[in-house]
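Hypothesis: this fold can be encoded by more than one sequence.
Test: take the structure tokens below, design a sequence, compare later.
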């Protein structure tokens, strides 16, 4: 099974994702564990949602945006906008985000690889959440690392 590496183009990432044949969370986590946050947010999350009609249905009633701030080398800021079952991801800051999730690149890698879960990282202070916590609760379990 091919794995995504930070030096791959978006098109190459999509080819690896397509080779999975499904958006199985365990297989997705395995191929994405070495990916950059940008590859995960800008490519894998939209692909994963679009390839799963049941996830689109789960997201249908969710409105708002979450800004993910991944601090450290290789990190970045990624805004995920939810509206009517559609998900739009933009790279960069979003000062008016409904909620903001802040974590360092090391914690992000632990989440991506499955070495830690989001609840444990939040409870230990590795993840900070500002804004509307109910939005985070609504998307929990629907998104990878959710």
């Amino acid at each position: 099974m091919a794995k995504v590496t930070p030096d791959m183009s978006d098109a190459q990432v999509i080819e690896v994702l397509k080779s999975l044949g499904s958006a199985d969370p365990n297989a997705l986590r395995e191929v994405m564990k070495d990916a950059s946050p940008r590859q995960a947010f800008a490519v894998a999350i939209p692909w994963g949602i679009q390839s799963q009609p049941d996830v689109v249905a789960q997201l249908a009633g969710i409105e708002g945006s979450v800004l993910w701030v991944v601090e450290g080398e290789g990190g970045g800021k990624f805004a995920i906008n939810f509206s009517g079952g559609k998900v739009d991801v933009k790279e960069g800051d979003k000062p008016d985000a409904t909620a903001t999730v802040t974590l360092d690149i090391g914690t992000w890698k632990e989440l991506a690889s499955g070495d830690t879960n989001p609840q444990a990282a939040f409870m230990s202070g590795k993840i900070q959440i500002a804004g509307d916590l109910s939005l985070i609760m609504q998307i929990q379990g629907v998104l990878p690392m959710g």
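Strands lie at 64-71, 76-83, 86-91, 99-104, 127-131. The chain has a mean pLDDT of 89.
Hypothesis status: open.
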